[in-house]
Amino acid sequence: MVLQSDDLLLSTVLIAPTSMSAISRSFRPTIAIGDDRSQVLVEQTAAVAPERLGDLVGHVSRRELDEIDEALRLVFELH
Fold first, then answer.
1. Residue pLDDT, tens place only, 22-57
2. CB hemisphere CA count around 18 (13 angstroms)
3. What is the sign, positive or negative, of the torsion defined by CA atoms of 30, 16, 9, 49?
4. Residue-wise DSSP of 43-63
5. Is residue 39 packed enough to be buried (19+ CB in 10 Å), middle (13-18) or exposed (0-12)?
6. The whole model's pTM is what?
7. Contact, 3 vs 45, CB < 8 A?
């Protein structure tokens, strides 16, 4: 999942991998990807080259985005 703002045009993008089999944690929000549910592993945030990413599969809802924002605040201790 791409976490970085579309307004930042850099040579890399910040991502968090997703997993359908990861153990549920308070800092791993669950999102819908098509008909599947997947957890966003925000504790594994990394920078990758955009060409390493696959095709766009969708967008998160406002509620999902809020949960991801909260998880990032928790993991990175942002206030």
1. 999 999 999 999 899 999 999 999 999 999 999 998
2. 18
3. negative
4. GG-EEE-GGGS--------HH
5. buried
6. 0.89
7. yes
